[in-house]
Design a protein that fits this description.
By secondary structure, this protein is of the alpha+beta class. It is built from 18 helices and 18 strands. The chain binds flavin-adenine dinucleotide. The site of flavin-adenine dinucleotide has 38 residues, from strand 3, helix 6 and strand 10.
């Protein structure tokens, strides 16, 4: 270990022997592994990597291959009061896996078996299954999960449930919580629990909810059962140019009110239309909407008719949608801008239709008002009959400390969201970046959550500090 680098928690020799005996080479305290698991995609932690500074390191990393091994690791940690951090793909953008108290990072990626039950239309997957691999497997059998986050290639099914993730096709298929039928998890003292995958059940409070969005603080999800859908027989690509953001959003609201559910709906404000669709002259200075309607051809055909009846704007054909399909996994801005000293990030929030435009305008203005901001813009990418998710992007070149500027933008964004009746997170979760605002968002619910945490995790060992718990 290099000079000046400390892990927050020493593992007693007896526990080290037990874990080495259990996992052999799948347990490591090597510097390279500790450094690799000290961060995720949280921009603050990526800055640490660029600077070569590692304020928080784990004490060890474990790669279990089955639920029994996860149980043994967690049991050993419990008996020795060692913190534990579940780690999926490490694609979280809010520092959710950062091991701030030291302890053991448990990487689930070696747990990757998949079993499809075609009659029940249910897929069983171990927590470490990679998102792209699962979708490719289902497609090969004629199915889809309908969950395609932009991080598909670098995230896991366990991480999806733990962060309450949602994908690009969510307006039709919903978020991961709508697909989750059952799960198996290892509890903080090492026992395992299975919430069975019934089509529906009315047997008391829904225990799945304890783990959906739990971000590793209540235990480790080791297996999930998810609903599958038939792969779409028909896929219709539609795009429109509107005169204003409000006009385009209003069109989408009317479509959803009538019961149509295009899978993909993305409406870009003027700034983002210029940035992403500069090659389409007709869109310049206007607002681009791209849509995909898909499913059984008869249903998709009917939904297309509703879209065409309700959308007020100029139709632009398939090309803008094809362009989006080709570029939708590209996130080069973050890696290109950051080394140049440009602070860059995205913030997603949700809001009811009645407050949507007010929140959008207030938030863009608030982020632009922070000294050093170059631009702040948004698109809307997940829609409901009740409201919408805005996905804001900001970039700035601050004169002073980049981290101070970054936190200032986040702070005005969170405050403005709460003041305008929105929720501070639509799908990225809370992690360490949003934790100081969770109390305000949940109000009395935060005290309840703290009590649940103390009851379930009496020693406070599961991802301590995450979400402010
Ligand atoms: C380029 C990019 C694009 C993204 N696009 C999207 C998007 O479209 N939609 C979206 O929702 N998110 C998106 N994200 C955010 C991120 O990918 C999601 O939050 C994803 O669900 C995290 O999964 P993961 O396996 O990488 O989890 P990790 O980052 O490893 O962990 C995230 C949190 O979940 C906990 N956790 C992980 N696995 C388990 C488990 N098995 N049991 C208990 N707790 C666990 C961790 O402790 C941590 O708190 C994006 C991120 C990036 C970098």
């Amino acid at each position: 270990m290099g000079a000046g680098v400390e892990t927050g928690c020493a593992i007693p020799p007896g526990a080290l022997d037990r874990l080495r005996g259990l996992l052999g080479e799948r347990f490591s305290t090597a510097d390279a592994d500790l450094f690799s698991y000290s961060h995720d995609y949280w921009p603050i932690s990526l800055q640490w990597v660029l600077k070569g500074s590692f304020p928080w390191l784990p004490s060890a990393v474990a790669w279990p291959e089955n639920t029994l091994e996860v149980q043994e690791i967690v049991k050993t940690a419990y008996e020795n009061s060692i913190p534990v951090y579940a780690f999926g793909g490490g694609s979280g953008v809010l520092g959710g896996t950062v091991p701030e108290k030291g302890g053991i990072v448990v990487d689930l990626k070696r747990m990757r078996s998949i079993r499809l039950n075609e009659e029940d239309m249910v897929v069983e997957a171990e927590a470490g299954v990679n998102g792209y691999y699962l979708e490719k497997y289902l497609n090969s059998k004629g199915y889809t999960l309908g969950h395609i986050p932009q991080s598909l290639y670098v995230s896991t099914v366990g991480g999806w449930v733990a962060t309450k993730a949602t994908g690009q096709f969510s307006t039709k298929y919903g978020g991961i919580e709508n697909m989750l039928l059952g799960l198996e998890a290892v509890l903080p003292w090492g026992d395992s629990v299975t919430v069975k995958p019934h089509p529906r059940t009315s047997t008391g409070p829904d225990l799945r909810s304890l783990f959906v969005g739990s971000e590793g603080v209540f235990g480790i999800i080791t297996r999930v059962w998810l609903k599958t859908c038939l792969a779409p027989g028909e896929r219709i690509l539609l795009s429109y140019v509107s005169e204003s953001f409000q006009e385009a959003l209003e069109s989408v609201r009317r479509i959803l009110r009538r019961g149509a559910r295009p899978a993909v709906v993305r409406v870009y404000d003027e700034t983002e239309t210029k940035r992403h669709f500069y090659m389409f002259e007709e869109a310049y200075g206007r607002v681009m909407t791209v849509m995909i309607v898909e499913g059984d051809s008869r249903i998709a055909g009917a939904e297309r008719m509703i879209v065409e009846e309700e959308f007020r704007g100029r139709m632009l054909g398939e090309e803008p949608v094809k362009h989006w399909l080709e570029t939708r996994f590209t996130v080069k801005e973050a890696s290109e801008f950051t080394p140049l000293g440009v602070v860059f990030d995205t913030i997603e929030v949700s809001v009811a239709w009645s407050r949507a435009m007010l929140l959008y305008r207030s938030l863009v203005e608030a982020m632009r008002s922070v000294k050093g901001t170059l631009f702040a813009s948004a698109h809307a990418s997940h829609f409901y009959p009740q409201g919408v998710c805005f996905y804001f992007t900001f970039a700035g070149v601050p004169k002073g400390d980049p981290e101070k500027y970054y936190n200032e933008v986040w702070s005005v964004a969170m405050k403005t969201t709460i003041e305008n009746g929105g929720s501070i997170s639509h799908h990225h979760g809370v992690g360490r970046q949003r934790r100081s605002w969770l109390k305000e968002e949940l109000d009395a619910g935060f005290q309840l959550l703290k009590k649940v945490k103390t009851a379930v995790d009496d020693k406070g060992l599961m991802n301590p500090g995450n979400m402010g718990l």
